[in-house]
Design goal:
Layout: H1 2-14, H2 17-24, E1 34-46, E2 55-67, E3 72-87, E4 93-112, E5 115-128, E6 132-133, E7 136-137, E8 141-152, E9 156-166, E10 169-181
Antiparallel strand pairs: 1-2, 1-10, 2-3, 3-4, 4-5, 5-8, 6-7, 8-9, 9-10
Length: 182
């Protein structure tokens, strides 16, 4: 139950007063408010110490969204980060793979009729695949803040998403995809 409260409170904090003021008088173009999309990209798992093992790999995601106005939107996503592993010169091993389910709000700025820039803030639940750190194992489940930004066209998007820090690991994604509006 605390996870649901955390997700709801995060979304409410994202909906800042500025966006509410502008949302009332703005409608999305052509009344196509729902979006469905798919993305592929690259994930990166790193630590503060550059001599530690480093893991990266492919990621893919499915997203659905609702544009509340030209300035405010809500997205939900399911993302898979393929498992990767690395061993440093001392034989310490880093192995990582995960699934993420996230909900986020988007504050967006139209740059022209078919091109917007946006900032995303929300929360994600991560389920790790027996992640190994050089210092030991990680917990299997996490609820983390999720933030990022990107650009969107009429039928495409490109974005950066970060899930913050899991113990000593930083988890980031860069992805691009296609979307349809309904």
């Amino acid at each position: 139950m605390n996870n649901i409260r955390f997700l709801v409170s995060t979304l409410l904090l994202v909906c800042c007063p500025y966006a509410f003021v502008h949302a009332e008088g703005s409608e999305p173009d052509a009344k196509k408010r729902f979006t469905v999309g798919a993305a592929v990209g690259y994930h990166d798992v790193d630590t503060d110490d550059s001599s530690d093992p480093h893991v990266n790999g492919y990621t893919y995601a499915l997203l659905v969204g609702y544009d509340w106005s030209k300035y405010l939107a809500v997205d939900a996503e399911v993302s898979r980060m393929n498992r990767g592993s690395d061993t440093d010169v001392f034989g310490r091993r880093l192995s990582f793979g995960a699934d993420a389910v996230g909900v986020s709000g988007r504050i967006q700025w139209p740059l022209d009729d078919s091109f917007i820039a946006y900032f995303r803030l929300g929360a994600a639940a991560l389920e790790l695949d027996n992640a190994e750190l050089p210092e030991g194992m990680l917990d299997e489940s996490w609820v983390r803040p999720m933030y990022g930004g990107g650009v969107r066209g009429d039928y495409w998007f490109a974005e950066f998403v970060s899930y913050g820090k899991l113990d000593d690991l930083y988890l980031d994604q860069v992805r691009a995809g296609l979307m349809m509006r309904f």
